[in-house]
Design a protein that fits this description.
It contains twelve helices and 14 strands. The chain binds 2-oxoglutaric acid and fe (ii) ion. The site of fe (ii) ion has 4 residues, from loops.
Amino acid sequence: MEERRTKSYGTALLVPSVQELAKSSNLALPSRYIRPHDQPLISDDHNALNFPHLQIPVIDFQKLVSEESNSELEKFHFACKEWGFFQLVNHGVRSSLLEKTKTESENMFKLPLEEKNKYKQAPGDLDGFGQNFVFSEEQKLDWCDVFALTTLPIHMRKPRIFTKLPSAFREAIENYSMEEEELAKSLMTQMEKALKLKDKEVTKLFEGGTQATRLNYYPPCPQPEKVIGLASHSDSSGLTIVLQVGDVEGLQVKNNGKWVTVKPLPNAFIVNIGDILEMVTNGEYRSIEHRATINSQRERLSIATFCNPNFGVEIGPAHTLITDQSPAKYRRLGTQEYYRGFFSRQLESKSYIESMKL
Ligand SMILES: O=C(O)CCC(=O)C(=O)O
Ligand SMILES: [Fe+2]
């Protein structure tokens, strides 16, 4: 077991691979993974009984961008306001690229541990194989391993990791990253339209922005009700686009106090509003809490792309949205200051964005 501290973004401890732990036969679940019993971790029966058809909205990208369809724009606006989440179909990203990205991502987790160790998270750097947001020996841990990469801008890619990547994975992720960048831009343009914003107030912030891609690998666990894959959180990003490998359910989204289990549509993207877009839209669009649950039989892999503003800009409510009747609800601060604060604390529900409220 190796533990280190990172420096540049606060502290983070490295903990052993959950994937390796899950391989052991007769696994005695270490207590640092066992969650308290006050929250049901497996999908909420009450919810399943009463709202069997409750699902996050599905948006058709081609309809959304076609000038004719105002109804899809309204649906999109509603999804961003009320759910903070939607599945995006007909998005135009080639399925051959999606298949390649998924297969090569799976291959990364199939590498032997010695190979993976070549890409281990290093002090002061969250890129590589490891875990998220580990700050103390006492804290409960997620049943998940991650492989994180800074993907854009190109000059911020970590040579320590990027130059060593298997070429097939590297090619897939480079192409995928560009497609996601374009898609995020198009979605933000539609947000400007739906919110009637002037002067490209959203897209400007994200021009030349940073993008991080994180593969989340959730091994099966013999006692899935005792652990959590990813604890409840909202994303610190602007916009997050998730591609799920396979059809195993696990992602749950909070809606009116209930956990709704997402049923992923094949090759659809699951898109969600991050804290920064909540701030920029002055709370019109909401970054909603979500979490990942674990399966007793099957592993699950998701590929999350976090689209963030340019490091050189200030983030805060768009000027068009601030009026005497609707004053700014969030403070304004530089992107770097925002991220420094975010990475120095434990991931906990919506506590970080709450601290931005005026
Ligand atoms: O695994 C998932 O579906 C969700 C991942 C997620 O919420 C995240 O990476 O922030
Ligand atoms: Fe998330």
